[in-house]
Automatic annotation (TrEMBL):
GO terms for cellular component: chloroplast thylakoid membrane; photosystem II oxygen evolving complex. Keywords: Chloroplast, Membrane, Photosynthesis, Photosystem II, Plastid, Thylakoid. One of its GO terms (biological process) is photosynthesis. It is found in: Plastid, Chloroplast thylakoid membrane. InterPro entries: Psb28_c1_sf, PSII_Psb28_class-1. It is a peripheral membrane protein. Belongs to the Psb28 family. PANTHER family: PHOTOSYSTEM II REACTION CENTER PSB28 PROTEIN, CHLOROPLASTIC, PTHR34963. Part of the photosystem II complex. This is Photosystem II reaction center Psb28 protein.
Length: 183
């Protein structure tokens, strides 16, 4: 998985550099490299993000800041298509806290409405600003020959994975009005 990193630099800092020397102290000059067009298996929707307006912090500051993009936490079964149905989530965790399982149950998920136009369910994807958590353990339940329910299982194998999953669930629950009920 690749990550996008951006650095904002004050335009006033660049304008104060000598005419033919456009680099800042301590920062290596950036090189532009032409690369051949390559095709990927990405089948989602391309986003056009407007350029970021840089606001100088005042003075002769050469400080640069990293820019973090916020992404609405979402769940997908077909990459690029958000699931609109909010799931019932059951969590289990081992006594020593080293592993666990999250079971997501979707009653009448919206993916059944759009799967005929968009393709087959390819997996279970939990997407937020940190990246993607995914599983291929997805099963559909049928009633009278029609799909009515999807269950997706996400296996957590370490304390780090558990912490990452809980950060996703906190963001997802805040965005979708879920609350934790301990049984």
């Amino acid at each position: 998985m690749s990550a996008v990193h951006s650095v904002a630099v004050s335009s006033s800092a660049i304008s104060k550099c000598p005419k033919n020397h456009h680099s800042l102290p301590g920062i290596a000059p950036l090189l532009t490299v032409a690369r051949p067009i390559s095709y990927s298996a990405f089948s989602g929707i391309s986003l056009r993000i407007p350029p970021v307006k840089v606001i100088p912090r005042g003075g002769n500051s050469y400080n640069s800041q990293a820019i973090m993009m916020m992404v609405k936490p979402t769940i997908q079964f077909i990459q690029g298509t958000d699931e609109q149905t909010v799931p019932d989530v059951r969590l289990t965790k081992s006594r020593d806290g080293t592993n666990g399982v999250a079971i997501f149950s979707f009653d009448q998920p919206s993916v059944f409405d759009s799967s005929s136009e968009l393709g087959d369910i390819t997996g279970f994807y939990m997407i937020d600003e940190e990246g993607v958590l995914q599983s291929v353990d997805v099963s559909a339940k049928f009633v009278n020959g029609k799909p009515s329910r999807i269950e997706a299982k996400y296996v957590i194998r370490s304390p780090l994975e558990w912490d990452r999953f809980m950060r996703f669930m906190e963001r997802y629950s805040q965005a979708n009005g879920l609350q934790f009920v301990k049984k």
